[in-house]
What does this fold into?
Amino acid sequence: MEKLKTKNIKEIVNNLKNNKVVALPTDTIYGFSCLPTSETAVKKLCELKQCDNEKLFIILVYENYDLTNLLTCENETLEFIKNNTPNPLTFIVNKNPNLKLAKNFYLPTLAIRIPKNKFLQSILKEVGFMISTSCNIHGKPNLLTCEEIEEHFPNLDCIVETKTSNATTPSTIVDITTSTHKIIRQGDYIVKKEFSYEDILNDKKIIKTINKIDNVTKYVVSHGMVHTMHVLDFSKNIAQIVNFSEHEKKLLYISAVLHDIGRVKDNKNHNVASVKIAKKYLKNKLNKSDIEEVLNAIYNHCCDINQMIKPNKISWALKLADKMDIIESRLLPQFYNGETHIEAYKNIKNSFVSIENETFVLNFEVKKKMNDFFENVATAKRMENLFLPATQCFGFKKFKINQILTKK
It folds into this structure.
């Protein structure tokens, strides 16, 4: 057995590249390492551990390595990994089908970790990625010291000797192969929760600001918390019907909660004011491209069609959700001042979208039929100008308005 020190990076790398199994101190506990591309090394490792199960193997990855070579995922998954690394946190990911590894790696998933340890990163800089698995016979207790490893594994190729690690707990493992992340094993590291609209709704300062809006605008219909929650609910309905990705849903819902917050500063140009507040608030909570998408949707939600800037699914969904809120529960009687346009609100109990024979349908639950309102030339034209491009952006060629009689 060759014995090296942590300063012998070149010798350690040579051992790995020459199909050797090396016992290394890691950012958690001591681990056996070899290159996963080496059939010889992986076979030797399985013999040492008396196993033939790739589920026991974690792939340690260099911090600047292109992860898309190892895995397939959406951008938000890569962002989640980035936000939680380098740390003693292992991710179960969907393996890139083009990745060539030893035959033991037959599963469609991989366990990867980007360690914080500078010693490990020095090795990984030279090899890109390598296996790490606990120093033990499968099913037996983990060996934590050089002395224990040398005693139990005299046929080991190489060991890097160091002082006993303070860490005795393996890494946290989280499964991110689906949009619903699942903790498989809890270690010392606590996974950072992905930022969502729920975090905004739990922010007392933001809620206090939104609650001020109606007292500032004094409109007969809410633009504050009542309207905000309506738009959020309508956004969820649209996202479900149109099959938004989980990432698109996240950005749409954040946009819905913040879309009118600027009214407390500048009611006339509230979309611009909302963009300013949202931009400052979301800094360091989302990545730059996601913030830009949210700000774009907020800006576009009240613009005329020909003034919208690079509208996409999220922009159109927010704009549609905002215009769907012509329902009775949005009315604020305390601010009523003889307005005549609110008669439509008084008659509409709810609104929602659906799909019918490949047609995008905007449904209104009404107390009595409103043919005069919906068939009015000006109203019909406004609805067509809004709903038709939104419908086409969602992938449908036609839309229609549907009235559903409901109990008063």
Summary: The two ends are 85 Å apart (CA to CA). The chain has two domains: 2-185, 197-405. The CA atoms of residues 17 and 35 lie 7 Å apart.
